[in-house]
C-alpha cells in the first residue's frame, strides 16, 4: 500500500497504522534524485573495481530453506568469504551467471549483491544514516528527507543498531528469484526485532523482479527456523558453513496482536501483492513479514540498497547467527 512521504520527524499516524497492519510501508520520494544518482555512481564504481581473478566466485543462494520454515537450508551460502563479510564490502554472484561451473557473464551482469558493511565503509551509503537533505523530488521542496533515525523513533526503537547493508543488483536475465522468507530468520534477536529499510535506486516493476508481500503475515507467522553457523564462534577461516535450524526462542516481537490465527499458520493462507515502485522510494519491511521477489525477466536491471536495524535494548543477539558483530559492535543509529 502506497502512502504519502513521511514528515521530517518520522512516520505519520496513518503510516504507522499501515505498517502495523500490513507489515510493510511504501514511502515514495524518500530520496532526492541527486542522492539516488550518487548511490548508483558509487555502485558502478564498486563494480568497476571488482577483480574476479582473485575472487572465490562465491555465489549467493537463498537455498531451499528460504526462511519460509520449509526445507533444510543446505544450499544457503556459508563459506568463509560470506561469513567474514560483516565488517567488509564483498561481492556475491548470481547462480545463473555460471554454466558448467564456469562464469559466463561479465561482472556487471554477474553480481547478485555487494555487502555487508556499506553503511560504514562507503561514504555515500554512510551518509544515508546522517542528517537529511532537501528533497527536490517531493511536492514540498522545503521538507527534508526523512532520516532512518526518525523512522526508528516512530517505531519505538530504544537503541536501534544497523547491520547487513547491501546493494542488490538483480541484473536483467540473471537476477534470480528469492523465495518467501522472513528477515528475522537471518537476523534473529530474542524476541525478534528486525526491520528492513529497502531503497529503490532504479524502478522496480513486476517484469524486473519487484518485491511481493503477504500483508498481515507478520502478525500470524512466527519465526520458526533460523539460519545459523554450523559452529558458533569459530574463526572465519575455519567456517563450517550455515544451516537452517528450528527456532527455540521467541517467535514474535513483544506487543499485542501477534500470533493471531495461531503460530505456524501456512503462508499460502493469503495472497501476495506486488510493490511496484519508482527510484527514490523507501520500503519498510517488518522482520516477521513474508515477502519474496521473482526472477528478473525484463530488459532492465533493478538495483536497490537495503540495510536492517535490530533493537539492542532488551533483546539478545544470538552468537549462532551467521552475521556476527564487528569488534566495536553493530552501528548505533541514534548519534
UniProtKB/TrEMBL annotation:
Residues 128-148 are annotated as: Disordered. Transmembrane segments: none annotated. This is Phytanoyl-CoA dioxygenase. SUPFAM superfamilies: Clavaminate synthase-like (SSF51197). Residues 131-148 have a biased composition (Low complexity). It holds the Pfam family PhyH. Its cofactor is Fe cation.
Amino acid at each position: 500500500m502506497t502512502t504519502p512521504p513521511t514528515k521530517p520527524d518520522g512516520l505519520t499516524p496513518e503510516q504507522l497504522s499501515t505498517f502495523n497492519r500490513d507489515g510493510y510501508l511504501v514511502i515514495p520520494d524518500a530520496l532526492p534524485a541527486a542522492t539516488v544518482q550518487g548511490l548508483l555512481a558509487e555502485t558502478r564504481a564498486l563494480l568497476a573495481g571488482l577483480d574476479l581473478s582473485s575472487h572465490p566466485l562465491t555465489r549467493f543462494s537463498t537455498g531451499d530453506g528460504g526462511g519460509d520454515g520449509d526445507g533444510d537450508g543446505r544450499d544457503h551460502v556459508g563459506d568463509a568469504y560470506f561469513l567474514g563479510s560483516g565488517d567488509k564490502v564483498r561481492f556475491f554472484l548470481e547462480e545463473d551467471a555460471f554454466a558448467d561451473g564456469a562464469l559466463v557473464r561479465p561482472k556487471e551482469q554477474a553480481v547478485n549483491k555487494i555487502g555487508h558493511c556499506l553503511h560504514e565503509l562507503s561514504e555515500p551509503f554512510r551518509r544515508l544514516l546522517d542528517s537529511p537533505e532537501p528533497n527536490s523530488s517531493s511536492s514540498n521542496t522545503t521538507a527534508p528527507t526523512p532520516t532512518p533515525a526518525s523512522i526508528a523513533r516512530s517505531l519505538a526503537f530504544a537503541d536501534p543498531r544497523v547491520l547487513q547493508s547491501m546493494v542488490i543488483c538483480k541484473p536483467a536475465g540473471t537476477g534470480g528469484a528469492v523465495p518467501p522468507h522472513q528477515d528475522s530468520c537471518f537476523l534473529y534477536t530474542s524476541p525478534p526485532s528486525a526491520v528492513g529499510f529497502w531503497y529503490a535506486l532504479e524502478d522496480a516493476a513486476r517484469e524486473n523482479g519487484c518485491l511481493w508481500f503477504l500483508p498481515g503475515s507478520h502478525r500470524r507467522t512466527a519465526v520458526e527456523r533460523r539460519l545459523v553457523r554450523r559452529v558458533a564462534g569459530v574463526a572465519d577461516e575455519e567456517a563450517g558453513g550455515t544451516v537452517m535450524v528450528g527456532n527455540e526462542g521467541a517467535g514474535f516481537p513483544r506487543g499485542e496482536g501477534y500470533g493471531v490465527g495461531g503460530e505456524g499458520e501456512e503462508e499460502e493462507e493469503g495472497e501476495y501483492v506486488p510493490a511496484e515502485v519508482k527510484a527514490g522510494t523507501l520500503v519498510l519491511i517488518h522482520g516477521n513479514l513474508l515477502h519474496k521477489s521473482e526472477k528478473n525477466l525484463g530488459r532492465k536491471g533493478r538495483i536497490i540498497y537495503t540495510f536492517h536495524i535490530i533493537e539492542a535494548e532488551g533483546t539478545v543477539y544470538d552468537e549462532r547467527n551467521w552475521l556476527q558483530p564487528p569488534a566495536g559492535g553493530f552501528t548505533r543509529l541514534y548519534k
